[in-house]
Design brief:
Length: 266
């Protein structure tokens, strides 16, 4: 086969000059812009969306998650009014479908970050045709601990209720209480959460990622994600362990998301 020099493609100059115009105030020189656009498929895909040549993108099968995230944030930015990006994974199990957040982005999110990601996650759950039932998880159960991590989740609960009063959300609580209304009623009978929570917001990235991978490994369920929350355009970053089925599922999700965003702006 014959290798093609990218400089022979008339789009190459358009792409690297656009990328340079975005990144020149972040220390990227024209030479660096040319190299990055030649060698980073995530950058090319993000530029295609920015140029309205594509509607959505999937990346992450090769490489590190946060490198892809950096390129997506740099080129596409965040949703209007959104201060942070987060990641959510879904698990379809025999007992039901559960969403866990934040599984890949924020190591130790603040109460403000948790509140924002919870509202974004709830909006995504609604796109699945489900009513979000949020549980803010902790080692503490409804005020049983004064640890900073527990206080953070209590503060996040107040912020969520201020921003989205219609959401069914409760916390902070143990994981078993989130899944069992019987346990919840026994320890906190005045809980506003009814039934089984389907959106689990965890206090740290470690907790969320470990919980998700343990549940995935211990079950025969179907996993979806990671779903990127807060990006300005439909863009998702998968992981090297993703299966072909996982890529297909996320491609379908990204396509639906792009269609819904177009309909909202029409």
């Amino acid at each position: 086969f014959e290798l093609v020099d990218p400089e022979d493609d008339p789009r190459y100059r358009e792409y690297w000059t656009l990328y340079h115009s975005i990144m020149e105030r972040k220390g990227v020189t024209p030479d660096q812009a040319r190299t990055i656009v030649r060698t980073r498929n995530t950058v090319i895909a993000a530029l295609m969306i920015r140029r309205n040549e594509a509607d959505a993108m999937i990346s992450g099968v090769v490489g590190r998650y946060h490198q892809h995230l950096y390129h997506i944030e740099s080129v596409l930015g965040r949703q209007a009014g959104c201060n942070n990006i987060a990641a959510m994974n879904a698990l379809i199990l025999r007992k039901g479908t559960f969403f866990l957040c934040d599984t890949y982005v924020n190591s130790n999110p603040s109460a403000e970050q948790i509140a924002e990601m919870a509202v974004l996650a709830a909006e995504e759950v609604q796109r699945f045709g489900m009513t979000p039932k949020l549980a803010l998880l902790s080692h503490s159960s409804f005020g049983s601990s004064d640890a900073d991590s527990a206080d953070k989740m209590r503060t996040a609960l107040s912020l969520i209720r201020e921003r989205a009063p219609a959401l069914e959300v409760e916390g902070e609580m143990h994981g078993d209480a989130a899944l069992s209304e019987e346990i919840r009623e026994r320890i906190f009978p005045n809980s506003t959460l009814k039934g089984t929570a389907n959106l689990l917001i965890l206090p740290t990235l470690d907790a969320a990622n470990i919980a998700f991978n343990l549940l995935k490994g211990a079950s025969d369920g179907v996993s979806i994600g990671p779903i990127l929350l807060g990006a300005a355009e439909p863009a998702h970053i998968l992981t090297p362990s993703v299966t072909v089925r996982g890529i297909i599922n996320m491609s379908a999700l990204a396509g639906v998301e792009a269609s819904m965003r177009k309909a909202d702006t029409a």
